[in-house]
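ESCALATION

Customer reports they have been waiting on this structure for their group meeting. Please prioritize. Original submission:
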Amino acid sequence: MNNDNTTLVITEDKLKALLTIREKGDFDPEVIKHLLNEKGIKHGIDQAMLQQIAQNPKPGSYLIASGTPPKEGRDGYMQYLFSSGASKESKASLAGEKKMDEKNIDFREIFNVPSVSAKTELAIYHPMVKGEDGVTVTGQAIPARKVFELALRAGKNAKISDDDKNIIVSTASGRPWVKKAGRNVTVGIEAVYQHEGDVDIKSGNLRFNGDVIINGNVNDNMIVDVAGNLRIWGFVSRSNINVSGKLEVMKVITASKVNVGGVSANLDEVDKRLQEIKETILKLEKTARQFLTTLRENKKTVQYGQIIMALSDKKFPHMKKQLDGLMELVNKNKQSLPEEVKNAAAALNQLCGIKALEVTGLDNIKESLETAIKFLNVTDNGPSDIIANSIWNSEIAATGSVKLLGQGTFNSRLVALNSVEIKGVARGGEIISRGNVIINEIGAPMGVKTLVRTDKEGIIKAKLLYNGSVLQIGKRILTAREDYSMVVARLTDDNEISLY
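Update from on-call: job pushed to the front of the queue and completed.
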């Protein structure tokens, strides 16, 4: 066999050497050795294949040497742990789903502002992994691709984790941001989010962990839920506003529900009702026990439910009013009430009407009441204030104070766990405060019923109190039978309301 019958070819990438035998004949292993030396092949030679060819040199092509390809490395890269602002239903998916029933899509929930709480992991850096050089069949090195590291930096309101230098953690609530400059990557938090324009169907509902400034209005049927302070430069119309911090509305709030500082303000009235009912239940139980003892001594048998129902009608008729008032509050605030309060209401419902006949004891009712009251007493997010221009036909609750700088409040319900100050008028609706209440005018010349209520230590001041207006301080109630000016209402030592 000679070189004309045997050829050796190296592939272009120099990672393979192929031996080709054209015709069957005598085979001289020295020919292959000569070809290997001639081509300079010295890496990855398949000795087993050469032995197989020597033993059975059939025509064909044989892979007799293989190089080692380079093992690729990996550049360092960032893994971001916060949403980029993509929606629950992304634009792409909405566009692609041509058959989707658009009636079932709430377009107000499509677009979200990315936000995180304090002490949240924002990003993880995965360092580069170096590659390994390869070798050609001729023994030459094949350099692996050069890989690069990124320089990780913590921006404003963020820091490198104390536990891992490759993790960035937020130090404040807000909107995450990323800045890239060459191989430098900075991750930080913008604690105040500026929302340009209106919150409407185009922008979607606004939910954010941090402070927010809305440079427009909040239009009909929208939700703004902010874990921080909120300033609205425009008006609020027919919307739900939930703020954990302070709320400022530069224009009018109309036909909306506003809750500032958590659920505490809304639940304050519920708490008072439960406390009153608890006191009544304890007295009812004590009286029922006395009746049972007397009946047993006289060897008479009466069902416990009959005693409860009889006492409710005769000795505790006010309990029905208390229960009705609680149920009205529960039904009004059903969606925002904690389960503990709902359970207490369900238990108390056993005492309403003819259902009282089936009551065999009050222990479960007392336990549910106690659980709800304890829960409400520890649910306190601190005082958060509302400052607005005017309020029309709305429900407002704040764990702090309410201050209105414009026309005032009209046919609205205001609840404040601190003071209420209204530069204008309060016409129609209710104002409920634990602190002092200062209003320019209460009621209206046409006798629109307006209730202003505060705790027994509170003072109600008004430059003008119209006939028909109702003032309540503690449990004492006074209905104005004429117009009064320069009113300073407080409880006297005789537990009566004095207007001067």
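Sent to customer with the following note: The radius of gyration is 40 Å.
Escalation resolved.
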